[in-house]
Amino acid sequence: MFQSANLTPIGIDLGTSSVKISIKNKKMRLPSLIGEPNPGFKGLTGDKSWENNLVIELEGGVEYYVGELARLQSLVKIPLAREGRMKSAQDALIAVKAALGLMAERAEQRFIVATGVPVATGTDEMEKLSKTLVGSHQIKIKNDATGDLKIIKARVLAAPVMPEPYGSWYYVLKRKGEQKAVDSIIIDIGYGSTDILTIYNGTILRTASGSIVEAVDTLVTKLAQFLNEKTGKMIKPESLIAVLEKGEYIVNIGGTTYDVSSQIDSLASYVARIIVDEVSRLMDTLPPDALIKYYILVGGGVYIFGQKLQNALMEHGLIKSPEQVVIPDDPVMSNAMGFELIAKYYAEKISRGK
């Protein structure tokens, strides 16, 4: 029905490490950064894709690199989120507008934009982002490698902004065919922080939600310290991310190969225990009639900590059965996919004139 109203729902997840976008059958990830242009630099050699050469031009001709271009080429990088919160609604707006320009299929297009932000983000900043998104925007983006320009007129009719893990909760309930909201705790393990969101009676319970810094970064930082001591060489924590993603847990330093699987296993258990300790503490604030049915694990850290978290939840007595732990089919994109479903719900209401 929303298609007949010519509305395009889009879900966006503004995470601490990456921006995830879900629209129709398209999924995209961009580093969660904008940055100042680098004078004299022109595009990424060998890669002329829009998503890796994205520049947005604002009123007055002010330009920002967005995503991968900002990560690799900006001397001044501006993170969209840090320490479990969105840093600036104004910077987030720039990134969302760039995403709309990137994903738009027509010169004039109407959108419903549902956006997720880190759990510790204040309600004032969330409302500010929502209000500034609603309305008409002329968006001008450029491919810095090819010089191609794209100008669209985007009209945003609704722009709900919610904590990121809410998207995964909505997505999981839809996939499971739940007809009613069920009490759940969503644990979103990112690179720089872990968000914990509690849903009670279908609403976000702020007193039982929070964000902690223990996450993937904790593991790679401690692993880098171990390797520094063992090899006498300086290892950057971020350089170990590729090792985790490959899942082979073998590193090559100065021509020597090291198997770090036992260290990663031990560190993963350590981080998982800290996360579950925080979950347990937050649960002490739950109303007596709350009955947590699902513990939903999402984020890139799920591939490293998923089984460890399930074990720790069992050890704490928070779950009685492994079936209470749910990992979506795509835990990295599930927030964005859930927000796209929420945007569709808003679009259907608008198409019915409500």
Explain what the structure shows:
With 354 residues, this protein is an alpha+beta fold. The chain has a domain at 7-164 and 334-351: 2-Layer Sandwich (Nucleotidyltransferase, domain 5). 34% of the residues lie in helices and 29% in strands. The protein has 9 helices and 21 strands. The protein has helices at 68-73, 89-103, 123-133, 165-176, 216-231, 241-246, 261-283, 302-315, 334-351; strands at 7-14, 18-23, 26-31, 33-35, 54-57, 63-66, 77-79, 81-82, 85-86, 108-117, 135-143, 149-158, 161-163, 184-189, 194-200, 203-204, 210-212, 250-253, 256-259, 294-298, 325-326. Strands 1, 2, 3, 4, 5, 6, 7, 10, 11, 12 and 13 form an 11-stranded mixed sheet that branches. Strands 14, 15, 16, 17, 20 and 21 form a 6-stranded mixed sheet that branches. A hairpin with a 3-residue loop joins β1 and β2. α2 (89-103) packs parallel to α3, α5 (216-231) packs antiparallel against α7 (261-283) and α7 (261-283) packs across α8 (302-315). The longest helix is centred in the last third of the chain and has 23 residues, at 261-283. The radius of gyration is 21 Å and the shape is globular. The model has no long low-confidence stretch (mean pLDDT 92).
